[in-house]
Amino acid sequence: MIERSAVHIMVLDDEPFMLKLLSRILLKLGFTSVMLCENGRAALERIADTDTRPNVILLDLNMPGMDGIEFVRHLVDQHYEGSLILVSGEDERMLKTAEKLVQAHKISILGYLHKPVKPAALSALLEKWAPISSGVARLAKSVYKAEELRAAIENGELVNYYQPKVAVASGEVVGVETLVRWRHPTGGVVFPDEFIGLAEAAGLIDALTRVVFAEAVTQARAWQEAQMRLRVAINVSMDNLASLDFLDFVTELTTRTGIAPQNVVLEVTETRLMQDTRAPLEILTRLRLKRFRLSIDDFGTGHSSLAQLRDIPFDELKIDQGFVHRAWADETLRAMYDASLSLARQLGMEVVAEGVEDRNDWDLLRRTGCDLAQGTFISQPMLAADLPGWMEGWRERVRTELSMA
């Protein structure tokens, strides 16, 4: 637990009454180092001075002169390393938007509070704060070179992990999503967000995807021989679909390993707009004709949009995790979730909800009749060897904890 008297807090609000009220609440909670500012300019001067720089800023959004959003931009210029709590009378959507903006600026945000502030809610947010020296501070991501990644592909440093997908109605494990990791010789396990962009920029994404696909299909064959009938999903970038050779690779490999196309799901993610869509459309249409399953991944984000649903014959729609987790408590997220689910239903598509992180998320899927679920509430991604043991434990969990009646 933090030593409350050691946390330096700034309250920035243009209303004198709010400044006094928040100051009293903080003092009663044991936070004795509190400075009050009525405008952004004065606050920035205090922040620029290392002797008065606060650890936490309680920030009102709607202020005359410099509003809270502009103030955040100035914090970026000052390389502020503390944390923010938004305190505002604005509506939920405005606060969420502001929270996203702060996160985009790479500034720590503990959360937001509606006025009038409840002491217990403020206390709970402040308990989340930790000093940078405690090791909680964000670690900068390593920067890798194309030559390193090319060597990793050639030397077998890429390894597949698998995250289960389960039927919401019955709890049955119906498939897995393949998630690649890079076992770096010195950097340990490297996650995809640190090297997929590099692979696309360096022209290595096709070679990378082929390695991942081959390992996944080979593993699917091993599971099939062990009487584990699972659909195996592999992520495919639109860049993979720029060449007609990819179609031949996929069909020849699945035929050679004896895996039915119906048990292979290609999860299509479009991270950037394609200049020429003819080749991707041809390949995806022909793959669909050969009975491979097509899934639109991260629906509602980036370029995964209604236009793709119109143009490509997808079987499956994956609702992005940003619209699933806490949709049971957030009206905006719930509207997005419901709309995605309804759209997929009308188009005759199977629906997968990503980002199922807790029992409340799971119960929402049950109530709304979503088809499949995926997320940490069910399981973290795992190595293939760990899947059979996990399945036994999951079946027991379904029987005893997650009533399917």
Structure description:
With 405 residues, the protein is of the alpha/beta class. It has 2 domains: 131 residues, Rossmann fold; 255 residues, EAL domain (TIM Barrel), CATH 3.20.20.450. It is built from 14 helices and 14 strands. It has an 8-stranded mixed barrel. β13, α13 and β14 form a beta-alpha-beta unit. α8 packs parallel to α9. The chain is elongated, with a radius of gyration of 25 Å.
Structural category: alpha/beta
The CATH level-2 architecture of the largest domain is identified as Alpha-Beta Barrel
CATH T-level fold name of the largest domain: TIM Barrel
Oligomer status: single chain
Measured as a percent range, the helix fraction is: 25-40%
Task: Give the strand tally.
Answer: 14
Total of helices: 14
Q: N-to-C SSE series?
A: EHEHEHEHEHHEEEHHEHEHEHEHEHEH
Mean pLDDT: 90
Order of strands across the main sheet = 6-7-9-10-11-12-13-14
Kindly provide the name of the CATH class of the largest domain.
Answer: Alpha Beta
How big is the Rg? 25 Å
Largest sheet: 8 strands, mixed, barrel
N/C terminus separation:
42 Å
Overall geometric form:
elongated
Q: Name the CATH superfamily classification of the largest domain.
A: EAL domain
